[in-house]
Amino acid sequence: MPWTLFICATSHVPPGVISLIAPNYLAMTYLASVLRSVLAVDRTRMRSWSAVRRGLLVVATFLIFTWWLGPDIGALASVASLFVGLQDRSDPPGYTSRLMTVESVVLALAVVLGGFFSPWIGSAVLILSAFVSGVIAQHDKAVSRMFSDVLQVSAFLGLSSMARPELLEAAVAVLVAGLAQAVMIRATARWSSDLPERRPVAAALVAVADHLDDAPLRSKTTTGPAAERAIADADSAVASSDLSHARRRALRKLLGDAEVLRQEASAIRVRNAFEVAQIEDPEVDAASDLASLTLRAAARAMTALPRPGLPDKARDQALAEIDDYAGVAENLAKDQDSRPTARAIARQALRIGRHVNRLLNAKETRVSKRALPVGEHVVDEVLHPGPRDLRGGLRLAAAAAIGLGLAAVFDIPHGAWVAATAVALLRPDYRALTSDTAARALGVTIGAASVIPLVYLTGGMDFANVVLLLLMSCAAFAVTSANEGLFVIAITLQTVYTRAMVGEDPVHVAQTRLLDVLLGCLIAMILLLALPLKQGRILAREMAEYAAATADWLQLVSSRAAGNKPAGMKKARRRMRQCRVSVQHGLDLRTLEPLGAGMSAWRGQTVFARIHDCARASAAAMLSLGHGGTTSDVGVAAADHASTTLQATAHVLRHRQVEQVEPMPATLTQPTDDIAELLLRADQEAQSALHAASGSNEDLPAKQ
Question: What local confidence, expressed as pLDDT, does residue 227 receive?
């Protein structure tokens, strides 16, 4: 067992004792990782006024349709409004409103087809919706959620218990309720701020500041990857935004400055970690501290919420701090006696101040023609699915069919909740099934149990019911993307309480909802065992892409070390970063989801660490070259050899064929300058990556 061997090699504990301790240690570590995933709350994704606005619309929908068509249809309309409103996440308003419109039409059609003709057609609609949700989950998460919501609303409706006239009224109510949310988003788009776009950029600035602070100390191990992921997330949010050109440009400039500072921090950290020509200069430390303070002040200025008619003291104070730091940074950048690294960091700190002011002074407008089309390429993905898409669709269709079948066999009321739970858990949108299952089971248990005392406390008072419905709806909208467990609690509270408001026994509804969800979780786990998600095979392919991208980057480093100025440096670096983020996320999922064949988590972590260290060392060398440094033929040869070695590593990961690379000549293994020393270290790490990938092929994917 790899973990047992590792612990024995790094400790003096007898192997027999280790054999007893290791399984328990791994189990506790696994449970701890699941618990962190369940309880982790991303505060940057919490919603405030938007949640209140959508919550008010849910309550208004319930009151209007209850007065007009009766409490059952009023409750259904409010639930449809809730699920349509959940599509308002971090996408541009124009895209969100069109998506809500399409979802409203889909839900209304599902109500008509599912209940107006026959229960068999209704079941077929739900299974087809699950299939489509799985097929397009890798390509369009929003549209995938939309088809998954069809099962949720159908489960709440109870199609078989309504007469045909009621079904037509229910379809109209669902359509109007969903369209109301879309109209609300469209109407308030002109007043919506760009805070959803600014928040991830501000989070990236803070993450880079943490990395800068820790670079000389190396007291933490995750600041670099955290900064990379934050920058990638922010870049994705800005790319899909429909903001005006001026504001998008300012946000991109800030991300570019943050990326350069991240590279500087990484170079300092790499030199210290590898003990290669370390930078120990007071001016570099001062410049790093200055850049860190500027980044944090810029993040505060970007996320301060202005109040109409009142001065924004927090933003003004942050901007004043940036101006103070700019004066010091300007003097340091002009000091020709200081180290090039210190001057480069100071110049980037100055650029951050300028771009923050440019962002805040730009007109806050949105361009509708930049809004993304709804479900771009969705029809093509459904009609021409790839093998991975087809497996995802069939897995979700099987989950829905099994859930509906068990509900029919055991006569479970609202049994589509079983299918909805299994589909929600198995939807292949890069989430961890184990933690989501735990979160959903705990959330439903807490939410269902909380409804019972609430019903008895309110005593059927209409005013109290409406207030609680508003609070529950707002809570669901507020935590939609922040935490899976809290989101499930809020959704369960709202749906179960709504059924209780229209006369159903809350205890019976809560118990039924809990049993449905637990059964759905069981179906998801069984299907995962029978049809594994193949995270190991996906991880091996993503690792191969990362090795190949790093090899291409090293070719450009070699050209730059030879005195040329190659084109495409930014594009190659961006591709390498994107591949790295995908691998890191795949490693996280593989740790939480160890089922299925393919690259194991421990071997993947070993190969990734070697490739990552190779990329870090070469990036540090590239920065030195950019600061005016030069290298010898040894550095050029080391970069070329590292590139060849990583290409061989990618070949091994893709084809399970061990490939050898000729070693570098002995005459070129001694560095003559600090850049050559870094590139030789990069070559050593590349050779270690090839050795780790070739050491055992038993957990690598078959040739594709």
Answer: 87
CA distance 633 to 522: 61
Whether residue 450 is predicted with pLDDT greater than 60 in this model: the reply is: yes
SS3 94: helix
For residue 430, is it left (φ>0), alpha (ψ between -120 and 50) or beta? left
What does the CA dihedral 675, 219, 203, 575 come to, rounded to 10 degrees? Answer: 30
Angle subtended by helix axes 245-274 and 282-303, to nearest 10: 150
DSSP state, 662? Answer: P
Eight-class DSSP state of 11: S
**Is the per-residue pLDDT at 598 higher than 80?**
no
> At residue 243, what are phi and psi to the nearest 5 degrees?
-65, 165
Q: What's the chain's length in residues?
A: 704
Average pLDDT on 306-318 reads 66
Which amino acid is present at 391?
A: R
Amino acid at 412: I
Higher model confidence: residue 684 or residue 186? 684
Question: Any idea which of 33-42, 51-60, 167-176 has the lowest mean pLDDT?
Answer: 33-42
**Residue 4 pLDDT grade (very low, low, confident, very high; cuts 50, 70, 90):** very low
The Cα angle at residue 493 between residues 119 and 93, in degrees rounded to 5: 85
Q: Identify the weakest region by mean pLDDT among 116-120, 246-250, 491-495.
A: 116-120
Count, in order, helices (H) and strands (E) of the chain: 26, 0
* CA dist list (Å): 48 to 51, 92, 703: 5, 17, 49
What does the alpha-carbon distance between residue 649 and residue 667 come to, in Å, rounded to a whole number?
Answer: 25
How far apart CA 637 and CA 216 sit, in angstroms, is 30
* Chain segment 495-550, per-residue pLDDT in tens: 777 777 766 776 777 777 778 878 888 888 787 777 666 666 778 888 999 999 99
The pTM (predicted TM-score) of the whole model is 0.71
* Residue labelled with tokens 């776009």: 197
The residue assigned the tokens 């969800």 is 517
DSSP state of 331: H
**Alpha-carbon span 465 to 330, nearest angstrom:** 61
Contact 553, 576 (CB under 8 A): yes
- Non-local (6+) Cβ contacts of 690 within 8 A are 645, 646, 648, 649, 652, 659, 661
Beta-carbon count within 10 A of 191 CB? 9
CB 440 within 8 A of CB 521: yes
The candidate with the shortest Cα–Cα distance to 304, out of 294, 317, 321, is 317
